[in-house]
Specification:
CATH architecture of the largest domain in chain A: 3-Layer(aba) Sandwich
Structural class of chain A: alpha+beta
Distance between the termini of chain A: 19 Å
Helix content of chain A: 25-40%
Number of helices of chain A: 7
Oligomer: homodimer
CATH topology of the largest domain in chain A: Chorismate lyase
Radius of gyration of chain A: 20 Å
Shape of chain A: globular
Largest sheet of chain A: 6 strands, antiparallel
Chain lengths: ~240, ~240
DNA sequence: CAGTGGTCTAGACCACAGC
DNA sequence: CTGTGGTCTAGACCACTGA
């Protein structure tokens, strides 16, 4: 991330458009003005706008369609680090029926631990959720999530019976930056019970914190049985 | 990775230059011809080569210096997935003295298991290495590595007392593509002994396979005590 | 089939690092 | 200072595709 000054034309226009998308001013599906129009608006040549849009497309913020224009894409919370992390898709690609169940749901004031997890400073209200994702009957992953109600107040009343909290959030909060932490831990008694594994079993834990322009959105901790899940990534020199 | 046809000018020039770097024809430190010269050689405008070099710079293959030119960079085997994975650096950033020791070293014909690990088809000769990396006195990571001697014959006689096998390989093999697999496993007896942890302790295992244009180079399996190591990655929408 | 993005050009100016 | 990369322009042609 480069926050430094020295905004070239690219960068100014890029930040501007990125801002409109990220803030939700241009919602997913919104058609971005045509290159020619943008060029006129910003008073630059089309190639400059093209560079910006191409970059935004590479970053996954916009989708470009010939003949019809460029559109804001649905947010895709996933870095190259975790190319696969749509749990529903993961499960379905295994040929298993995907199910989830919210086991616990609680609204409360943020504790000190919550504040560390969520990167909040004041003691806002938070929503705590515990969700189990299953592939067929077998537990696939446990999701412990904290949602910052100061940023996403609607979460307090949301219905998570048809849509998982993660999915719901993606549709609610426009765009976010994220941080991932991956580690291996031994399952404690509670987790082992939920995942139906031996206590002490090695589990892969992926923690994700996300921020919207408004502030910290959510902290999610996914725990996978180590022997049932791997993270794969490939890369080539010039990508 | 896009291997499809339809080579635009960009892509053809990009692949060409990438090929020279990756094959070692242009070794690390080599000064790439100036943009104007490249433009003349390829019979294109300077902006086109600029685009290519900019892209190669973003990919980390070349470093651009104003006034002096563009240079081939030392290979940096790391995807965005594993932004940090120079063990020496990791340890030193902890403020600990870094040490390593090759515990086992053996040249042999590839077994069936080796062939799966290394992606070789014939039963070439391979070099098997077991290395322990330490932060001060405490074990930091166990590295089990297989090197394909058909691609890197010099490895058979290499001296791994001053330079770790991983470091040595980076300096030998020009550029590679790589695949990373991350998972959590319980330490078996042998690993537990080497890492000085309880048997069954959750460990983070990172496997990396790399290929050079010549063929599969190496397979390395790094095992970290789960409570002493995490993988972190951040990302923002437009990067 | 008209308009969009995709690409490329020839030329220009600038900042800046090394000579 | 001079030459390099960094950037930008005004204009052009093309392929594709959706109306």
């Amino acid at each position: 991330m480069k926050t430094g000054k020295d905004p070239t034309l690219h960068q100014r226009i890029l930040r501007d458009i990125e801002g409109r998308i990220v803030s939700g001013e241009w919602a997913p599906g919104h058609r971005i003005p045509f290159e020619i129009d943008l060029a006129a608006q910003y008073g630059v040549s089309r190639m400059t706008v093209n560079k910006v849009l191409t970059q935004l497309a590479k970053a996954g913020l916009v989708e470009r369609r010939k003949r019809s224009g460029s559109f804001v894409r649905q947010p895709q919370i996933q870095s190259a680090v975790l190319e696969i992390h749509d749990i529903r898709k993961e499960v379905e690609q295994l040929g298993q029926p995907y199910r989830f169940a919210v086991e616990r749901r609680q609204v409360r004031k943020a504790t000190g631990a919550d504040m560390r997890r969520l990167d909040v400073t004041r003691d806002d209200r938070v929503l705590e959720l515990l969700t189990i994702h299953r592939a067929g009957a077998t537990p696939f992953c446990v999701e412990a999530r904290l949602i910052n109600l100061a940023v996403v107040p609607a979460a307090a009343e949301a219905d998570f019976s048809a849509m998982s909290p993660g999915q719901w959030l993606i549709e609610q909060v426009p765009w976010t930056s994220a941080e991932h932490v991956v580690q291996a831990v031994s399952a404690d008694a509670a987790t082992a019970g939920l995942l139906d594994v031996e206590r002490g079993c090695a589990c892969l834990v992926i923690e994700r914190r996300t921020w919207s322009p408004t502030g910290p959105v959510t902290h999610a901790r996914f725990t996978y049985p180590g022997d049932r899940h791997t993270l794969v990534a490939r890369f080539t020199p010039s990508s």
